[in-house]
Design goal:
Layout (H helix, E strand, L loop, with lengths): L1 H8 L10 H25 L3 H25 L12 H7 L8 H17 L15 H7 L1
Helix pairs in contact: 1-2, 2-3, 4-5
Length: 139
């Protein structure tokens, strides 16, 4: 839970790094909270504005986390734009719709890469690797 809270505290920090554990734990807790919100929504009919606000905050948090995870791997955060390729192929009519056959596996491979690739153990151009002891000291 420490990594999840750390991710939320660093929602607007796109400069540091995030390790595999932080990335995985954030997505695990986010998915759990999302399921709970959807279950509550079924029975209570949560206001659309509240649902939208939660979605926007989650999108910003996930974008920041993915940027920091890419920094941990030594890549620029702009590489996450690859996840928009299915959307671009649907919006821009010059691409055939069959291109989605290739873009969805590309996005899935990218997400698997982020979950399982070990980050740089040494200092890279984005700073020092983050450890649980550093996160515990900040809390």
């Amino acid at each position: 839970m420490k990594y999840f809270i750390h991710s939320l505290k660093n929602t607007f920090n796109f400069k540091i790094r995030a390790n595999r554990k932080e990335h995985f734990e954030f997505h695990f807790y986010y998915f759990t909270i999302y399921i709970l919100i959807e279950l509550v929504n079924i029975y209570t009919n949560i206001d659309f504005i509240l649902h939208l606000a939660i979605g926007i905050l989650a999108t910003i948090s996930k974008t920041s986390l993915t940027t920091r995870r890419l920094h941990d791997l030594g890549y620029s955060g702009w590489w996450q734009l690859i996840l928009l390729t299915p959307l671009i192929s649907l919006v821009i009519p010059i691409f055939p719709k069959e291109i989605n056959f290739f873009t969805y596996p590309l996005c899935l491979t990218f997400m698997i890469f982020l979950f399982f690739k070990d980050g740089d153990r040494e200092t890279n151009k984005y700073g020092l690797p983050i450890t649980i002891t550093q996160i515990a000291k900040k809390s």
